[in-house]
Design a protein that fits this description.
Low-confidence stretches of chain A: none
Strand content of chain B: under 5%
Oligomer: heterodimer
Distance between the termini of chain A: 110 Å
Number of helices of chain A: 34
CATH topology of chain B: Formate dehydrogenase/DMSO reductase fold
Structural class of chain A: alpha/beta
CATH superfamily of chain B: Formate dehydrogenase/DMSO reductase domain
Number of strands of chain B: 0
Number of strands of chain A: 42
Order of helices and strands of chain B: HHHHHHHHHHHHHHHHH
Largest sheet of chain A: 7 strands, mixed
Number of helices of chain B: 17
Number of domains of chain B: 1
């Protein structure tokens, strides 16, 4: 010990008798504890008494021990990275370009990943074509985290390993080839050059295999017509940007027509922009159709017409355009007049007019192509063709006959679900079950997988490699954004293995691109980074002579005896591949606003004559009868929805519903319309009988008309817009201040103290009602970004949908909204007001339609903020109306006092609750949640936040990089404006005078929703201008 | 207080040749005697309803407000309807005890005790709703400005809901103090008569050592007067503030400057109706016909008639102003009220509140006990509908037609309402068995001037 160190003694004894102290120090317990005495001697233990103080000690100890033992904190298991991957920084999102094609939808997209986990789909702006995702593509990310996915290969109902699976399959294939027994490879349309190559290698290896492409919803007539006229089986590509006059006969080109993605280009032509010297111009859109489609809803003029009449109409139009001398059956007088008007307009627009036709008939398509050629339409692309549908009805029918006759011994399928999408699934199923060899490469144990002997678990496109050519010369690459979640393989990989190629799909793809696609100046890494790659590749048609008079006679030679059923696909469900996706099930149809269902759309008059009705229950929920729709020996029972605008004598049913296998029972909604898809024709002659049972709909909008409230959706016509002063068609509401009418946005009217908003960012959202087509991509994007819960059919039915962003759809009660407004203004007296308002509750037979996206308006003087007793909702410095979920006690006063009714209350616990068994109730589904947005608990209010998590991220990014925020950088921060492919929404900082939103705020068409209330919203709308001055609805 | 002379044309307020002792005996009888079968039956029913209500409340709190019939458009319905209804009922007590005291209306003495009891019990019911209607009621204390360590969190003094908290709690406190002060001499009377030691102990506790000295009486009178002065503004303020919940909002049908006086009149209207309902039964059951006479009932009927007419006037003013405003949303809101999907609620309200009290113009009807009872029930129903109409029909169709929907209650909504009725009657029935239901000390002060025997004696002398 250091001598310098001082030593202290505790007592004198320690100094004198250190030995004794040492022993004492060694022995902690001076007396041995009497444990043995007590425990060994049973008697003494029993006799020993516990005194009061001991009792209290024991009691205290055991109570606190029990309490402590029960207080176990929740255990969150987290595994840190052993090796921190490059480029993954916790809290920072990474984006990867990829593309998707599932046989129905296609898009070039960006995938947002957080900590290696894909959480959202965004548009790829580098893409020239198909660069925007629709609602289904946005929702497809959730389909990856689907708990119903197959997690590994299955052979005869048993889980086995891929090695064993491959051995079995190759054995079977070899024996089939050896015996030269025919096998069919039935797939969706292959738009991928590499996949085509792999299939070719496969069929080369197994010459007994024939490859057939099958589209669940066939576009064979368009393809046939193109092949006949131009020598190539493809879909014509239309450039709507160049179309000044669009005549659509039954083509739902803003919906799913031909897998198109036309809304962005279409919307560009629909925005009237005034230049200084000339009048504003916008395209004119006339729609002739039977069902009320999204496209019809956007048209300036809409003519409801049966498909049979549409054919005749087209024939007459052709006759006029081609100046033929033909005798055709006469059109009804009313259509005759319309035809002449339309023809004159069409011709007057010359080569900037465009005709598109959705009639599912090869002759109709031939005539359409021919009319476009005759008017030299610039909008019909002469060099580009679309390659996303290839199925041929004739070939499919041939194959199906062979399968049914057992002329085929084996079948391999991927990307399709014929046991659901064929009109006679039972026959197909029983035939496939009889086959010696049947494989389905699928993500789900769907209808087709359950009849196959072998099911190969397929990967989701976000786990796969691939490439596509949607349009000639326009290539897309698909790259995985996450390692496969389960033991799955993409179909290409399966085919490679089975044809004995051990190369990975990545290598095959890269080789193929380097060899065959990329030119000398391009590199693979750049292509994979961009996700898209363009090559100069112009389509050169081989023109052939076509006998048009034959086409005409074949086209008009048809009669419909009963009801004309027009099958269509809904924006929410498409062909039904993603039926197990709760976002899509809860997505309200843009037109009917019904979620969780398909239905028979029927006109009011027809419904009345058959005895079908819609009515509302005491809580407002929509009910209906069922109808029995029969066609030959098939019949389906389906609820009825009276659809304004439905052509008389026609009914519509959407595909995609009535799935029965591979999905949760909650998702088994609607009826299967494919059963009526005989001969792959979208128009059928059906008999309808009422069934007096009650169906319960989950409809999010129970009142369909605007009640003459023209102030809510302002609109005018192009003529008025061009000739009259702004104050005429877009007046600012006035209030009386000291008996002087003063505009409500004037300072002197304001009773509030306003703070200076010129410093920092001030967010505004602009919504152009001319550009919004109601497609609903923003609704799903908002769902994904903000962890909006799915509440299920029963709750939606109780008007408790949780969507932060909704797209209101209004029908006019009179012929137009302007008439509604006039009718309301001309009300004279009490009894008149009762009749007029009573009439206004019902939509017109062929109404005008308008879409209005509504989310939190982020009022600068918000009514919700003043009434919250705990100040849980308050105003942000950047203009947002904040919502502090943790502070909310749930009085719902804010929601009551919101004039826009955008606030959504958590009536129940929507996560980790078996009552709401959707994606937030299982660990897999929760992977889609955005970690930046809190998942709300029950009892709190929630609403649109202007995606504050993203705007904040943009600000921080700019700050880190030491620069100012770019002028339009905020636009992509808001999920809705980022998803909007039409440019209807623009989000940004109005304090940045360069920004798009600032420019839009200066526009004459700007108005605020319910401006007179004085809420001063930060969302503004643009007056809808209709180009219908001459031609009116009938 | 007041003069000891009452004009001969005035009807006596105490009948049945009472002496001071008889009054004591009559008032103490229900407390000293044992409960009869009817009491137990009614108590049993009330208790069952109360328990059912508690069950529904537990279900709501454990599962969520989703168990009610509310939706994204109609965020309040039965919950706040019930709240306003109960607060309104609570109004009569203070009006009778405070305002009528200041106006020296002696007929108040026979009824003020029960009216005040009713006030307190109904404010308790009312107070339940703002708490259980919250999505997270376990955080209800956040709406009270308690200094806290949560950071800078504080309540929002702009919110009418916060004003409600102050208004209701002040009202409950003042009413309770006022009531108890009046009870002191009466409790002392019971104490002095009590023979059982336990009873004696309890009543001596609750009578706060009342000794009956002249000083006690002088202080008693002074405190009563001061409290009456304090409570009178509350009669106006409480329902005014409750009406601000609606009046300060921007929703057509709520955003109305007429609401404060209209709500106060309505509250007095419904309060008197409830007093009428309770006392007509009570005078019969407790044999108090001599203290709560037909004269009392008639006077209350007159108040009901007048306030009913004020309320009717307000309804018509609302319609007029909606039309006169020229605002389309306002106009439609009121048109929709009267003729929309909830027309039945509106016309139920109109019939019950505006038309039915007009029968009271007939002396024969307003002195008929059975008829008065029926009308009192009708008015209570009507006033419930008034609040339902204001809340639900304004919300269900407001500005944007896309959000329009309907409301329909679930069994939980109904169960909680019935539960509060049960709770109210449980409290009232217990009160009737343990409290002096007539302010006997006060009644004794008017016995010599307004007792029938004394009046007769005096008139004979002349």
């Amino acid at each position: 010990m250091d001598k310098n160190l001082k030593k202290y003694w505790k007592s004198e004894i320690e100094l004198t008798n250190s030995a004794q102290v040492d022993t004492l120090r060694q022995n902690e317990f001076l007396d041995s504890l009497p444990v043995d005495n007590i425990l060994e001697d049973d008697k003494s233990l029993k006799e020993s008494s516990t005194n009061r103080r001991d009792f209290l000690k024991y009691l205290g100890f055991s109570t606190s021990a029990a309490v402590l033992a029960s207080c176990e904190g929740p255990v969150h298991k987290s595994v840190p990275y052993v090796i921190q991957p490059e480029r993954i920084r916790p809290g920072i999102a990474n984006f990867y370009a990829t593309s998707m094609f599932n046989g129905y939808d296609c898009a070039n997209i960006l995938v947002k990943t957080r900590e290696g986990r894909p959480i959202k789909i965004e548009n790829n702006k580098l893409a020239n074509f198909h660069g925007s995702a629709n609602a289904r593509v946005h929702a497809s990310i959730l389909s990856m985290y689907d708990s119903a996915r197959i997690q590994g290969p299955i052979s005869n109902g048993k889980d086995i390993s891929w090695d064993d699976f491959d051995i079995e399959i190759i054995q079977k294939l070899d024996s089939l080839r050896f015996n030269n027994k025919p096998v069919v490879l039935l797939t969706n349309t292959i738009a991928s050059p590499t996949t085509s190559k792999i299939i070719k290698d496969f069929t080369d290896k197994y010459p007994n295999v024939t490859h057939v492409e099958y589209d669940s919803i066939s576009e064979s007539s368009v393809l046939d017509a193109h092949e006949i006229m131009y020598g190539k089986r493809a879909i014509p590509y239309y450039d709507f940007k160049n179309a000044k006059y669009i005549l659509s006969i039954g083509a739902d080109f803003l919906g799913d027509w031909l897998g198109s993605n036309y809304d962005g280009e279409y919307a560009k032509g629909r925005i009237p922009t005034k230049s200084k010297d000339s009048k504003a111009q916008m395209s004119k859109h006339v729609q002739v159709e039977s069902n009320m489609s999204v496209t019809g809803a956007n048209a300036d003029v809409r003519v409801p017409m049966k498909v049979a009449t549409q054919k005749l109409f087209l024939a007459h139009l052709y006759k006029k355009v081609a100046k033929l001398d033909l005798i055709l059956p006469e059109l009804d007088k009313i259509y005759e007049i319309k035809l002449n008007e339309i023809y004159n307009e069409l011709i007057s627009f010359g080569n900037s007019a465009l005709l598109v036709c959705g009639i599912d008939n090869v002759h109709a398509q031939i005539l359409t192509n021919s009319i476009n050629d005759l008017i030299l339409s610039e909008a019909k692309s002469s060099t580009k063709i679309s390659l996303i549908r290839k199925g041929d009805d004739k070939k499919i029918n041939e194959v199906l006959t062979k399968i049914n006759r057992s002329e085929i011994s084996g079948i391999i399928m991927f990307g399709i679900n014929p046991a659901y999408t064929l009109p006679n699934p039972d026959l197909f199923s029983s035939s496939v079950k009889k086959l010696e060899f049947s494989v389905n490469i699928s993500m789900k144990m769907d209808e087709t997988s359950s009849i196959c002997k072998y099911v190969a678990a397929a990967s989701h496109y976000l786990e796969s490699w691939g490439d596509f050519q949607f349009i000639n010369g326009e290539y897309s690459l698909c790259q995985p954004t996450i390692r496969t979640l389960f033991d799955t393989r993409q179909s290409e990989e399966c085919l490679l293995r089975w044809s004995g190629n051990d190369n990975s799909i990545h290598n095959v793809l890269k080789d193929n691109w380097n060899k065959n696609i990329l030119d000398a100046n391009s590199i693979w890494n750049k292509a994979i980074h961009d996700g898209v790659y363009s090559l100069e590749d112009n389509f050169k048609p081989k023109l052939t002579n076509v006998d048009f008079s034959d086409s005409i006679s074949k086209l008009i030679n048809n009669e419909v005896k009963n009801f004309e059923l027009c099958l269509y696909s809904k924006i929410g469900m498409g062909d039904g591949q993603q039926a197990n996706n709760p976002w899509l099930q809860e997505f309200p149809d843009p037109i009917s606003r019904v979620s969780w269902d398909n239905y028979l759309t029927i006109s009011k008059i027809d419904a009345k004559s058959i005895g079908l009705k819609n009515y509302n229950e005491a809580n407002g929920a929509l009910n209906s009868n069922y109808a029995m729709v029969s066609l030959g020996d098939s019949e389906i029972k389906i609820p009825v929805l009276i659809q304004p605008g439905q052509a008389q004598g026609t009914v519509g049913i959407s595909f995609g519903y009535g799935r029965s296998s591979g999905l949760k029972s909650e998702m088994m909604t609607g009826s299967n319309a494919f059963l009526l898809y005989k001969n792959f024709s979208k128009v059928q002659d059906v008999v309808i009988k009422p069934v007096h049972e009650i169906h319960e709909f989950a409809c999010v909008q129970l009142h369909n008309t605007l009640m003459g409230r023209g102030d809510i959706v302002r609109e005018t016509t192009l003529e008025v817009f061009n000739t009259k002063n702004k104050n005429y068609w877009n007046p600012i509401p006035v209030v009386s201040k000291n008996h002087i009418e003063t505009a409500v946005n004037k300072k002197e009217v304001n009773i509030w103290e306003e703070f200076d908003r010129s410093i920092g960012h001030h967010f505004n959202l602009s919504i152009d009602l001319n550009a919004c087509t109601g497609c609903g991509a923003c609704v799903i994007a908002c769902h994904a970004e903000n962890n909006v819960p799915v509440v299920g059919k029963a709750e939606v039915r109780k008007s408790r949908d949780m969507h932060w962003l909704r797209i209101d759809r209004y029908y006019s009660s009179d012929v137009s909204f302007t008439d509604d407004k006039e009718n309301k203004e001309n009300i004279n007296g009490l009894s008149d007001s009762l009749t007029v308002f009573g009439d206004m509750e019902d939509p017109n037979e062929n109404p005008q339609v308008v879409f209005q996206p509504v989310m939190c308006q982020h009022c600068n003087q918000a009514p919700c903020e003043t009434v919250c007793p705990v100040a849980a909702t308050s105003h942000g410095r950047q203009g947002q109306n904040h919502m502090a979920y943790n502070r909310c006690v749930g009085t719902r006063y804010c929601a009551n006092n919101c004039p826009y009714k955008v606030r959504r209350f958590n009536w129940f616990l929507y996560n980790n609750n078996d009552e709401f068994d959707f994606n937030m109730n299982d660990d897999l589904g929760k992977m889609v949640l955005n970690p930046d947005v809190v998942v709300r608990s029950r009892g709190v209010m929630e609403k649109c936040s202007f995606c504050i998590q993203s705007t904040q991220a943009v600000i921080l990014k700019a700050k880190n990089e030491g620069r100012e925020v770019d002028k339009n950088e905020f636009n992509d921060a808001c999920a809705c404006s980022a998803a909007c492919s039409t440019g209807a929404m623009s989000f940004g900082d109005i304090n940045n005078k360069e920004s798009e939103v600032y420019k839009r705020k200066k526009d004459d068409r700007v108005y605020h929703l319910l401006e007179y209330v004085g809420t001063k919203p930060n969302v503004f709308y643009h007056v809808k201008v209709r180009n219908n001055d001459k031609l009116k609805n009938i | 207080m007041g003069s000891h002379y009452e004009a001969p044309i005035r009807k006596p307020l105490v009948t049945g040749n009472k002496t001071y002792h008889q009054i004591s005996v009559d008032v103490a009888r229900p407390i000293e005697g044992s409960a009869n079968k009817q009491w137990w039956i009614v108590f049993g029913i009330s208790l069952t309803l109360f328990m059912w209500g508690i069950g529904c409340i537990i279900y709501t709190i454990s599962t969520g407000i989703g168990t009610w019939g509310l939706n994204k458009t109609v965020g309040w319905a039965w919950d706040i309807t019930n709240f306003v209804w109960w607060v309104g009922i609570g109004h009569a007590g203070t009006l009778i005890s405070a305002v009528l005291l200041l106006f020296r209306q002696k007929w108040r003495m026979g009824i003020n005790r029960s009216a005040e009891a009713m006030t307190i019990f109904s404010v308790i019911q009312a107070g339940l709703f703002p708490i259980i209607h919250m999505g997270r009621p376990w955080l209800a204390y956040w709406i009270v400005p308690i200094p806290n360590t949560f950071g800078s969190l504080w309540v929002n003094f702009n919110s009418p809901l916060l004003w409600d908290v102050f208004a209701i709690s002040t009202y409950l406190t003042v009413s309770l103090v006022f009531w108890w002060t009046g009870l002191l001499p009466d409790f002392a009377m019971i104490r002095d008569r009590a023979v059982k030691p336990f009873q004696k102990k309890i009543y001596s506790l609750v009578s706060f050592g009342w000794s009956g000295r002249a000083k006690d009486w002088q202080r008693f009178e002074e405190v009563s007067l001061v409290l009456a002065g304090l409570a009178t503004p509350l009669v106006l303020s409480v329902h005014t503030i409750v009406s601000f919940d609606f009046a300060t909002s921007v929703i057509p049908g709520w955003h109305t400057t007429i609401f404060p006086p209209y709500f106060v009149a309505g509250a007095i209207f419904s309060g008197f109706a409830m007093v009428q309902t309770l006392l007509i039964v009570m005078r019969k059951v407790c044999n108090l016909e001599d203290y709560i006479t037909v004269q009392h009932i008639e006077l209350m009927n007159i108040v009901i008639m007048i306030t009913g007419s004020i309320v009717g006037c307000a309804y018509i003013t609302e319609l007029f102003i909606a039309w006169y405003s020229g605002v389309e949303y306002e106009q439609y809101a009121f048109l929709n009220r009267a003729t929309g999907p909830y027309w039945w609620a509106y016309w139920a309200m109109m019939t019950c509140n505006v038309f039915s009290p007009q029968f009271m113009w007939f002396k024969k009807l307003r002195t008929s006990i059975v008829f008065s009872f029926v009308i009192s029930i009708v008015v209570n129903i009507g006033m419930w509908f008034e609040r339902f109409v204001i809340i639900v029909t304004s919300l269900h169709r407001d500005y944007l037609p896309s959000s329009w929907t309907m409301f329909s209650p679930t069994f939980v909504d109904i169960g909680i309402f019935l539960g509060t009725i049960g709770f109210f009657f449980v409290l009232f029935l217990l009160y009737a068995r343990t409290f002096p239901v007539i302010a006997q000390a006060e009644v004794k002060t008017i016995l010599k001037s307004s007792g029938d025997n004394y009046k007769e004696l005096r008139d004979k002398k002349k």
